[in-house]
UniProtKB/TrEMBL annotation, chain A:
Pathway: Protein modification; protein ubiquitination
Keywords from the UniProt entry: Auxin signaling pathway, Developmental protein, Nucleus, Ubl conjugation pathway
Pfam families noted in UniProt: F-box_5 (PF18511), Transp_inhibit (PF18791)
Name used for this protein in its record: Protein TRANSPORT INHIBITOR RESPONSE 1
Lineage: superkingdom: Eukaryota
A GO MF term: auxin binding
F-box domain segment(s): 5-46
Gene Ontology cellular-component terms listed: nucleus
Entry keyword Lipid metabolism: no
Chief location: nucleus
A GO biological process held by the record: auxin-activated signaling pathway
TrEMBL record, chain B:
Source domain of life: Eukaryota
Subunit and interaction comment: Homodimers and heterodimers.
InterPro entries per the UniProt record, alphabetical: AUX/IAA_dom, AUX_IAA, PB1-like
Keyword entries, A-Z: Auxin signaling pathway, Nucleus, Repressor, Transcription, Transcription regulation
The organism of origin for this protein: Forsythia ovata
Phylogenetic lineage: Eukaryota, Viridiplantae, Streptophyta, Embryophyta, Tracheophyta
Pfam families found in the cross-reference section: AUX_IAA
SUPFAM superfamilies (UniProt xref): CAD & PB1 domains
Keyword Membrane: no
Domain PB1: 129-208
GO cellular component: nucleus
Record protein name field: Auxin-responsive protein
């Protein structure tokens, strides 16, 4: 049957398959489909850079044009992964440079990228078009200068929220005068000034520029200069949105915005001066995406601005919006898909704003399309969670952070098991869940029973015993990523569900009760998992085997144990006992 | 109530842990205690002179710990590492906002802490209340106290006792950070002078 279509017909059919899942499925049909598919796959996504080696990838897929790689575990965003842990992209770039001279796109997340890597990218790929570096680190503006200078057809340069060492703002001037290909430029993470003249000229000569995200150092007075030269912009990230109150600044700004008829997304707004918000009123009705999460504006100016955006689909905002603002949002923005409310004063137990569970309930009830929530608050109740679950069975991502760890239902002082239970029971399409507050093993029973589509779960300061972890590992069929911190989960559930871990991308457990002995056992029994112990205080075998490890990161891999581990990371495999005793001998213990 | 370095404000000693696991729990607790203590030793080495590194309370991205330790173990104001879960970009915005607030920066207007009453609360400029952050060593989350409601160290200590527990406050010494960023022992200055220069308060364990 497989031979009835000539190869090029099959290849043509496969070219319509863009999702990795679909391509992986067709690869499994038969050997000849596997062969045809691998020769024509152009995009690869590697969710964990240590799950596979560059050599294995290149051997299977000889002609790739776009690579996406992710490095550190998600909890690295919150400083739980020590510096030097890994995620180095350089070895990948070396191999990719050799194998894929026609590579066009590289997207990296949470990886360590050096100037050397950037220079190698800029010189190895003649048709390089897209560089996206999200939450990366390790490079300087010198590396960016290489990219600017050597990538003749660069379309997209997105620095995400990376940590860039700012040596000079002149890197931007390295874009040659004949570079007109930019479609997207995001430099919002850069600390110091870029050369504004160079920026202005660059923007002016790139007629296809659709996304421009400036850094804080670009002053508000200069924003009209850029907007006038790029009226076709679809997404704009302002620089600092503050200036002395002067009518000519305001009118220039308003006029410039008036000319931007395509604008759909806004972000930036550092140091916002509310008096300047009305300058954007002319674009508000077209805005679908609004990121005010760095804007320290308050009500009434804040909610007034947001309410103007009747077609809003995505809103990121600080909790200055308060319950009242969210109620207004629920009334005016019926198209809202995604809401993220960040805390303005996260390290204070006492509230500085009037934002409670009521705001979230209001939006859940008022916005029928709401499917993605990230909400920081200081009080929650089971009743509210049940209401949210009942209003929004279409919820896909639900992340709730109650600022105080283990906070109970503030009305009844009970755990929030029932509330989160209602979420997983009603929201059958739920793919991502982050929980907080006082939670017992019972909530995990609900999750294991109902959350069949759940792919990513984040747990902190929750649960009573191993039973909790066992419910999750044994019940959540679609689970890919599990990250846990400060929970009383130990060896039993982990070892009982060892094979489950091979069906997942990764498991992170820190400040839990998993013993060194159990980690060793897991590593020895499961050769296709890398079981990595992170112990900054010293080798894990310096105490008894029952002593808990500080942090544990387990992930499936076909590349074997990694070779670039720092001194505080140990891989548990068959060699682990002997290699550890060698270490202690050397140290003269 | 003996001192317990826990990861939450309230004491949750009866969470129904399996008794069989008690030893393991204790070990976990010990390991955590050790880790925290070492962190404090490294960073509060000069506490005798009540000279604390100026950057300690506010700024992130300053590595206060000995190399070999996690980079930012101590940067969340001695609280729980990585909690609440916000990334460094957002933390900078929060810190910046409070820095500006204290300097009376006019480009931003801040809500002052509501004292339980209703009402608008937001609006430009600073109100007459004087909310100062209070941190107790070993407690994850800071509180705030309105100094404008006090007129002596005694009433202040009474309020702090109510907040943190009487025994604790007696066992700790109260320090404050002045306008120059120096940490000093509270009580040496006349109250009026103290009020004019205090930026934040910190309760430190005796015995350092």
């Amino acid at each position: 049957m497989a031979q009835s279509f000539p190869e090029d017909v099959l290849e043509h059919v496969f070219s319509f398959l863009n999702y990795d899942k679909d391509r992986n499925a067709v690869s499994l049909v038969c050997k000849s489909w596997y062969e045809i598919e691998r020769l024509c796959r152009r995009r690869i996504f590697i969710g964990n850079c240590y799950a596979v080696s560059p050599e294995i990838v290149i051997r299977r897929f000889p002609d790739v044009r776009a690579v996406e790689l992710k490095g550190k575990p998600h909890f690295a965003d919150f400083n739980l992964v020590p510096e030097g842990w890994g995620g180095y992209v350089y070895p990948w770039i070396v191999s990719l440079a050799r194998a894929y001279p026609w590579l066009e796109e590289i997207k990296l997340k949470r990886m360590v990228v050096t100037d050397e890597s950037l220079e190698l990218i800029s010189k190895s790929f003649k048709n390089f078009k897209v560089l996206v570096l999200l939450s990366c680190e390790g490079f300087t503006t010198d590396g960016l200068a290489s990219i600017a200078a050597n990538c003749r057809n660069l379309r997209e340069l997105d620095l995400g929220e990376s940590e860039v060492e700012d040596l000079s703002g002149h890197w931007l001037s390295h874009f040659p005068d004949n570079c007109t290909s930019l479609v997207s430029l995001n430099i919002s993470c850069l600390g110091s000034e870029v050369s504004f003249c160079a920026l202005e000229r660059l923007v002016a000569r790139c007629p296809n520029l659709k996304t421009l995200r400036l850094n804080r150092a670009v002053p508000l007075e200069k924003l009209p200069n850029l907007l006038c030269r790029a009226p076709q912009l679809v997404e704009l990230g302002t620089g600092a949105y503050s200036a002395e109150i002067q009518s000519d600044i305001f009118s220039n700004l308003a006029e410039a915005f008036l000319g931007c008829k395509q604008l759909k997304g806004l972000s930036g707004f550092w140091d916002v001066v509310p008096a300047y918000l009305p300058a954007m009123y002319s674009v508000c009705s077209r805005i679908t995406s609004l990121n005010l999460s760095y804007a320290t504006a308050q009500n009434p100016e804040l909610v007034h601005f947001v309410s103007q955006c009747s077609n809003l689909q995505r809103l990121w905002v600080l909790d200055y919006i308060e319950d009242a603002g969210l109620e207004a949002l629920a009334a005016s923005c019926k198209d809202l898909h995604e809401l993220r409310v960040f805390p303005s004063d996260p390290f204070d137990a006492e509230a500085n704003v009037s934002l409670t569970e009521q705001g979230l309930v209001a939006v859940s009830e008022g916005c029928p399309k709401l499917q993605s929530v990230l909400y920081f608050c200081r009080q929650m109740s089971n009743a509210a969670l049940v209401a949210i679950a009942r209003s929004r069975p279409n919820m896909i991502r639900f992340r709730l952070c109650i600022i105080e760890p283990r906070a109970p239902d503030y009305l009844t002082l009970e755990p929030l098991d029932t509330g989160f239970g209602a979420i997983v029971e009603n929201c059958k399409e739920l793919r991502r869940l982050s929980m907080s507050g006082l939670l017992t093993d019972r909530v995990f029973e609900y999750i294991g029973t109902h959350a069949k589509k759940l792919e990513m779960l984040s747990i902190a300061f929750a649960g009573d015993s191993d039973l909790g972890l066992h419910h999750v590992l044994s019940g959540c069929e679609s689970l890919r990523k599990l990250e846990i911190r400060d929970c009383p989960f130990g060896d039993k559930a982990l070892l009982a569900n060892a094979t489950k871990l091979e069906t997942m991308r990764s498991l992170w457990m820190s400040s839990c009760s998993v013993s060194f002995g159990a980690c060793k056992l897991l590593g020895q029994k499961m050769p296709r998992l890398n079981v990595e112990v992170i112990n900054e205080r010293g080798p894990p075998d310096s105490g008894p085997e029952s002593c808990p490890v500080e942090k544990l990161y387990v992930y499936r891999t076909i590349a074997g144990p990694r070779v670039d581990m720092p001194g505080f990371v140990w891989t548990m495999d068959e060699q682990v006992s002997s290699s550890l005793s060698r270490v202690t001998e050397r140290r003269g213990d | 109530m003996e001192l317990q370095l826990r990861l939450a404000l309230s004491s949750n000693s009866d969470e129904g842990f399996d008794l069989n696991n008690r030893n393991q729990e204790q070990q976990v607790e010990d390991c955590r205690l050790m880790k925290k203590k070492r962190c404090f030793d490294e960073t509060f080495g000069e506490i005798e002179n009540v000279q604390v590194p100026q950057t300690l309370p506010l700024l992130d991205h300053i590595d206060l710990c000995v190399p070999g330790y996690g980079r930012n173990e101590c940067d969340e104001e001695d609280g729980v590492v990585g909690w609440p879960p916000i990334n460094s970009w957002r933390k900078r915005v929060c810190h910046q906002a409070h820095h500006d607030n204290r300097r009376g920066c006019i480009t931003t207007n801040y809500v002052t802490v509501k004292n339980g009453g209703g009402g608008g609360g937001s609006g430009g400029g600073r109100s007459k209340s004087m909310h100062i952050k209070v941190k107790m060593e070993g407690v994850g989350i800071a509180r705030k106290v309105d100094l404008s409601r006090h007129h002596s160290y005694q009433t202040l200590t009474d309020t702090l006792s109510a907040m943190f527990g009487d025994e604790k406050v007696q066992a700790y010494k109260l320090t404050y950070q002045d306008k120059e960023g120096d940490w000093l022992l509270a009580g040496d200055m006349p109250w009026g002078t103290f009020i004019n220069s205090v930026q934040r308060l910190k309760l430190l364990r005796n015995g350092y």
